Amino acid sequence: MSDEKSSTGKVRFINPPNTLKIKVGTGGLNDATIKRSQSYINDVKVDFAPYAKQYLEELEKQSALLQKGAQNNAELKEKIIAPIMQLKAHGGMFKYQLLSDVADIALQFLEAINEINDDASNILNAHKNTMKIIVKNNLTGNGGSEGGKLIRELDKACKRYFLKHKKNSAIPKGR
Amino acid sequence: MSYTLNKAKILIVDDMKPMLALTQSVLKIFGFKNVFVAGGGEEAFEIVCKEDPDIVITDWMMSPMDGLELASVIRRNPAAPNPYVPIIMMTGFSSRLRVENARDKGITEFLVKPFSSQDLYKRVVQIIERPRQFVDSGTFFGPDRRRKASADYKGPRRRGKEEKEEENNTPKTEEQKRAANILKKLHEETKNISN
Q1: In this structure, is residue A173 part of a structural domain?
Q2: Contacts of A154 in chain B (CB under 8 A)
Q3: How are strands ordered across the β-sheet holding B141-143?
């Protein structure tokens, strides 16, 4: 292990031995192995709908607190974001790509705003209702051309929001 | 010649069982033989202490100990056998602030869900071929965050690849037509939001 001190003497840079490289050697994996593993992902037999319903129930529960006038704070926003992130993350892993794409837009939208005001709440509800309909009707896959149009329309709705509410952005300037 | 992954030990941590099983299977297809699994952070840390894995792949949102807390305890707890073990965070989060937060807790690589097997493979290769040096500043101990300027990397969007294909996809079966009608209706309803 090689250590060195920075010019200030306060920061240590450490290069641990690469024992993993010693164990696995060189050469990577061949394309056939990667393709086989992707086929496994594509063909995996998991019914995601029951999980999606649980995440949607959690989303419903948390977003209902907004309607009841609960304190609109960062903690509540995180609780609303959590099930949306799960839908985005796992929908696409288990054949619900359109669900994942809708959740992704909602997630990026919520991550980009400071607070969930009435207009933001309308956008959140639109995404939530869309996701519920996708799950209820077992709309697996990416939805084809109609799915693409829907995604672009949801994206446009978020853009319209930011034009209207320029100050409600959680993204620091320069990012 | 290709990697001989059968000697390497890898630990996957995720509280969603199908995701845990899926990742385990993909890694076994890659050639890993010693694949350990845990459904949460606490169980994972026990395995870390007992098995001393070469790579840890962890989900972020778990309870009671989440992926970030697991990373912190691996990096700082004296009971951990290897504080330098590469940790891949696999999560649905992809915003720059989240990625930076994860890096601050000692995460080595970020893998955004949903991911392809190629995405996972690339992270493993990155860890093997381009390991990060470690920084100990007193307030921070973890992999050097400056190796590459891709903190806002969001991973390839599958839809991006499929967009051209999707445009030519006219619904053929009754099931596809039913789905298209539902989505068309939703599309129309969405036009009025935020006006």
Answers
A1: no
A2: 190
A3: A2-5, A12-15, B134-136, B141-143
Number of domains in chain A: 2
Whether residue A76 is found in the same domain as residue A134: yes
Query: Contact B116/A41, CB-based, under 8 Å?
Result: yes
Q: Say which of B7, B96, B168 has its CB closest to residue A23.
A: B7
CATH number, residue A147: 1.20.120
Q: Are B89 and B102 in contact (CB under 8 A)?
A: yes
Total number of domains constituting chain B: 1
Region for residue B194 given its phi and psi (left: phi exceeds 0; alpha: psi -120 to 50; beta: otherwise): left
In this structure, how many other beta carbons lie within 10 angstroms of the beta carbon of residue A68?
6
ipTM associated with this complex: 0.89
Residues A140-163: pLDDT tens digits?
A: 999 999 999 999 999 999 999 999
CA distance B74 to chain A (A): 15
State the best of A8, A37, A44, A142 to mutate against chain B, taking most chain B CBs within 10 Å: A37
pTM: 0.88
